[in-house]
Write a structure and sequence with these properties.
10-stranded mixed beta sheet; 18 strands; glucose metabolism; NADP binding
């Protein structure tokens, strides 16, 4: 199998974004007719093929209820690719790719359908040379996991004892809705697939800027000596969306911003920001350091002052009239599901003692942005006195999306005859500094699954520790029937979110 640009005509020799090539394999998608598959997963697979990172012996199998033939499914895949792929559509690449595309029609409880899936994979092993290497991607509701996993086990597709190949399963979030359900789900999954063969997808961990947190911290001497409670005042982690829930009411109501985003994405960002340097990038070493951080997270004694939750109201945003949360289709009038959540937590380690971490996530906010802001302690300014009145606190801001990069905020003298100090920004952007475009998160993660490289995938211990952090908030809201506070569309959340920081003599950074 070619593994260099010179031997692979599909690889641009200047493209160093993803330098590894997967071996022969078949990828089975359950939930292939959903939006995630259409807009992200199928285009990502094509982009990997187009870059020469999947071999000619790769195959793609869709499993679903639709009454489709293989050709019908190929047409669906083509339309998805042409609409959403990041690389250009090439007929020669498509012709090679489509030869390995198959569709199996059936329901999750249909034994005959799983027998057809087994036969299809055996046929691909024979005709495409996939060698018994099969990955099963469950882009389906968690309530269907057990049924699908059990069918895979019943029909001998989860084991590879009689073949030289491997078997892996990929699970999309949510990983449960609380600690108890997460443990139950993990037990179900790991009864069928061993822990090392289970890949839990958190697409944020596939983003280039998230991975760059490790490079920024540990490859540079200038940052790490300051990365502790002696110099850092607090840390803010924000994931803001400027859209509402749209057509996701069926999923979103009863879940809310805290379960949907904070429990997974933001706590993973917290772990990467606060972790100690791992021995290596080996998956076990990375996970060990993240787990230490999550296990050290503590909640303030007065939980009532450590959160804010809200629901967006109707109004105008960006010059357009938008619906309020209760005007969205299928939202009950008495729903207490939050569309905004902000939490305050602490990390009980020597490095972070006394440094609060503020997490916030919400919909219909000022703009779409995800960032980590490390805010440093205020300089005493004994020398500059009133000349420094216009300055704030130094900060390092890591922009996860959009406009991926990093901003360093510091004080500088204003040109002129007087000593006047003002904050300025030094900015690094991926788009300006590198000719290569960052790979899409799902490209990296799907490739890692097929290569069997797990560093970017959380294990069940991380998932359960995250629920241990969030569950006390959820239980408090439920026990006290806490009603989320309304907030204007295009704002930065309810007043209570700002009051939470004001009590600590701090303020949210405006992204």
């Amino acid at each position: 199998m070619p593994n260099s640009a010179e031997k692979n005509p599909l690889r641009d020799p200047r493209d160093r974004r993803l330098t590894r090539v997967a071996g022969p394999s078949a990828l089975v998608f359950f939930g292939v007719t959903g939006d995630l598959a259409k807009k992200k997963l199928l285009p990502a697979v094509y982009d990997l093929v187009n870059r020469g990172l999947l071999p000619p012996s790769f195959a793609l199998v869709g499993f679903g209820r639709r009454d489709w033939s293989d050709d019908d499914f190929r047409q669906q895949v083509r339309e998805s690719v042409e609409a959403h792929a990041r690389t250009s559509f090439r007929e020669d690449v498509w012709n090679q790719f489509q030869e390995g595309i198959r569709f199996v029609q059936g329901a999750f409880d249909n034994d005959d359908a799983f027998e057809r899936l087994k036969a299809t994979l055996a046929e691909l092993d024979e005709t495409r040379g996939t060698r018994g290497n099969h990955a099963f991607y469950l882009s389906i509701p968690p309530k269907a996991f057990e049924q699908v996993l059990q069918k895979l086990a019943d029909h001998d597709m989860a084991e590879s004892q009689d073949s030289p190949g491997w078997r892996r399963v990929v699970i999309e979030k949510p990983f449960g809705h609380d600690l108890e359900s997460a443990r139950e789900l993990n037990s179900i999954v790991e009864k069928v697939f061993p822990a090392d063969s289970v890949f839990r997808i958190d697409h944020y961990l596939g983003k280039e800027t998230v991975q760059n947190i490790l490079a920024m911290r540990f490859a540079n001497k200038m940052f790490e000596p300051l990365w502790n409670c002696n110099h850092v005042d607090h840390v803010q982690i924000t994931m803001a969306e400027d859209i509402g829930i749209g057509t996701r009411a069926g999923y979103y109501d009863g879940v809310g911003a805290a379960r949907d985003v904070i429990q997974n994405h933001l706590l993973q960002l917290l772990a990467l920001t606060a972790m100690e340097e791992p021995i290596s990038f080996n998956a076990n070493h990375l996970r060990a350091e993240k787990e230490k951080v999550l296990e050290a997270v503590t909640l303030p004694e007065n939980l009532e002052e450590a959160y804010a939750i809200g629901q967006y109201e109707g109004g105008y945003q960006g010059g357009e009239e938008v619906k309020g949360f209760f005007d969205e289709k299928d939202i009950p009038a008495d729903s207490r599901t939050e569309t905004f959540a902000a939490l305050k937590v602490n990390i009980n380690t020597r490095r972070w003692s006394g440094v609060p971490f503020y997490l916030r996530a919400g919909k219909r906010l000022g703009r779409r942005v995800t960032e980590i802001a490390v805010i440093f302690k205020k300089s005493p300014n004994l020398l500059f006195g009133g000349a420094a009145d216009n300055t704030g606190q130094n900060a390092i801001v890591i922009r996860v999306q959009p406009n991926e990069g990093m901003t360093l905020r510091f004080a500088s003298k204003v040109p002129g005859t007087q000593m006047e100090i003002r904050d300025v920004n030094m900015d690094f952007g991926y788009g300006h500094s590198f000719a290569e475009e960052s790979p899409e998160a799902y490209e990296r993660l799907i490739l890692d699954v097929l290569l069997g490289e797990p560093p970017l995938f959380p294990r069940h211990e991380e998932v359960e520790l995250s629920w241990k952090i969030l569950d006390p908030f959820e239980e408090y809201w439920e026990k006290n029937k806490v009603k989320p506070e309304g907030y204007k569309p295009g704002s930065w959340g309810p007043a209570s979110a700002h009051e939470m920081l004001e009590r600590d003599n701090r303020a949210w950074r405006r992204p």
